[in-house]
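tokens incoming
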């Protein structure tokens, strides 16, 4: 029965998403929304008029106008604040979300922003530590850069979110992959999902140049492969064959030519790790963390060998650090990219394009998996929060309201309708979003001696296919660092 209800919820969500893209003003009629073959309706499933699931926070929950101070980090795209409605649907959705949280919980949201991205992570952690040690209970909620949360947890500055009933991690605004990979010793100190729109902005995707595709005439549209489940690494490399052109006629493969595939060095190229179903780190039976067999063994070796050959031994691909000119100038069929790039630079792209997920490792892989770039937020509660139950209610309400307001605006209007060109791209985005996957090795990056994804991409860059010796050099040190990080966390 539980599976049937979950399926029913998914159907209602998908129905509402496609309706939103077709007509943003069109609403689902609750009286007519009954799932075929069942007696389940929106009302019985506790969903709103648009088919979105509602949270279980009490209707009479009120904090009497109390100010809730949220510490955030300065990101390229502000996912926290909107001073007023201005006609931009995403901005207005964030404004509406915040207003709804304030109305429903009778609180006043107050945001304090500090620099806290990768370059400023240490500064951010120090700032938080000083505030906690001062014992002034300054912040009720913390929203930090994705690699910062584990460091705060290892210094025992975060509360266990599983202790607060208002947080319901079975709800769809909390991705199961992330919540499963944030739990250590039955404790979870940070979480993310619809509460952080930067999750969607930083999904790793492939962009297809439709104008260039048309110029080849007989090439099949790879988006069709993606939709029927046959988009694999081999098929991607086959698709890129015979697409190279020496545009500057210097008889040398260089950045001024035309290619089948291009990518900047990192993190875009690192998406092949995740899309191949490889996790770098996994929990052990005794609640520690360790490198996975896939990462240290034959599967990673196979991926490295295949991609090194593709990037260095053929003219089909181009891979250089911070060189994305082929994408902007329309000189590549496929480009490793993000929706964030499409949104920020859409006006600079003068050709038609489509989107598709990174390919599967092989045909035996059941699902597509999507890597998310580091600039998304993890939310938690600091140990000196004055009212942790209130903090938990605010986080749940923000995530729930984001799921119903901000995500549809970002996902449907900004991506599927505005920046992509057809219904097939909308379906591809559904696949990409459904495949969002997280990795302990990225979340715990600041506690490790080396970036596990950089380790791979640097060998791609240098055409170094010897993975076993690399693992022999780093494996024990990395596993020891993971063990130390987890041992520091007080899970009481």
């Amino acid at each position: 029965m539980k599976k049937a209800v979950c399926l029913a919820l998914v159907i209602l969500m998908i129905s509402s998403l496609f309706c939103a893209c077709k007509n943003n003003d069109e609403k689902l009629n609750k009286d007519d929304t009954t799932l075929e073959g069942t007696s389940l309706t929106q009302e019985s499933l506790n969903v709103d008029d648009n088919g979105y699931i509602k949270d279980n926070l009490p209707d009479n929950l009120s904090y009497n106008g109390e100010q809730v101070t949220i510490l955030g980090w300065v990101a390229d795209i502000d996912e926290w604040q909107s001073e007023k409605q201005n006609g931009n649907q995403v901005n207005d959705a964030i404004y509406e979300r915040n207003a709804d949280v304030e109305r429903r919980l009778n609180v006043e949201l107050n945001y304090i922003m500090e620099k806290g991205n990768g370059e400023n992570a240490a500064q951010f952690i120090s700032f938080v530590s000083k505030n906690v040690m001062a014992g002034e209970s300054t912040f009720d909620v913390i929203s930090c850069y994705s690699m910062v949360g584990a460091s705060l947890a290892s210094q025992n500055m975060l509360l266990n979110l599983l202790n607060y009933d208002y947080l319901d991690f079975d709800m769809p605004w909390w991705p199961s992959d992330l919540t499963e990979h944030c739990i250590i010793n039955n404790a979870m100190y940070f979480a993310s999902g619809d509460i952080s729109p930067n999750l969607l902005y930083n999904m790793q995707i492939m962009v297809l140049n439709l104008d260039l595709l048309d110029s080849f005439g007989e090439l099949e549209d790879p988006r069709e492969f993606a939709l029927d489940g046959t988009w694999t690494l081999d098929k991607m490399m086959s698709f890129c064959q015979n697409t190279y052109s020496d545009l500057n006629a210097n008889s040398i493969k260089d950045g001024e030519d035309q290619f089948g595939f291009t990518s900047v060095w990192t993190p875009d190229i690192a998406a092949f790790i995740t899309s191949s179903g490889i996790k770098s780190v996994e929990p052990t039976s005794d609640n520690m963390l360790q490198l996975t067999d896939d990462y240290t063994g034959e599967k990673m070796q196979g991926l490295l060998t295949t991609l090194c050959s593709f990037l260095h031994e053929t003219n089909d691909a181009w891979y250089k650090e911070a060189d994305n000119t082929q994408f902007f100038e329309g000189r590549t069929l496929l480009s490793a990219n993000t929706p964030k790039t499409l949104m920020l630079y859409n006006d600079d792209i003068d050709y038609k394009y489509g989107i598709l997920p990174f390919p599967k490792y092989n045909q035996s892989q059941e699902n597509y998996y999507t890597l998310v770039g580091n600039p998304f937020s993890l939310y938690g509660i600091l140990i000196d929060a004055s009212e942790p139950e209130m903090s938990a209610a605010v986080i749940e309400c923000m995530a729930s309201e984001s799921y119903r307001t901000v995500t549809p605006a970002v996902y449907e209007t900004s991506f599927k309708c505005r920046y992509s060109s057809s219904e097939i791209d909308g379906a591809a985005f559904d696949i990409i979003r459904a495949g969002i996957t997280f990795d302990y090795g990225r979340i715990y990056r600041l506690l490790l001696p080396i970036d596990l994804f950089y380790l791979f991409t640097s060998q791609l860059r240098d055409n170094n296919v010897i993975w076993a010796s690399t693992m022999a050099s780093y494996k024990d040190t990395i596993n020891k660092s993971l063990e130390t990080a987890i041992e520091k966390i007080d899970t009481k």
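note: Residues 1-40 have pLDDT under 50 and may be disordered.
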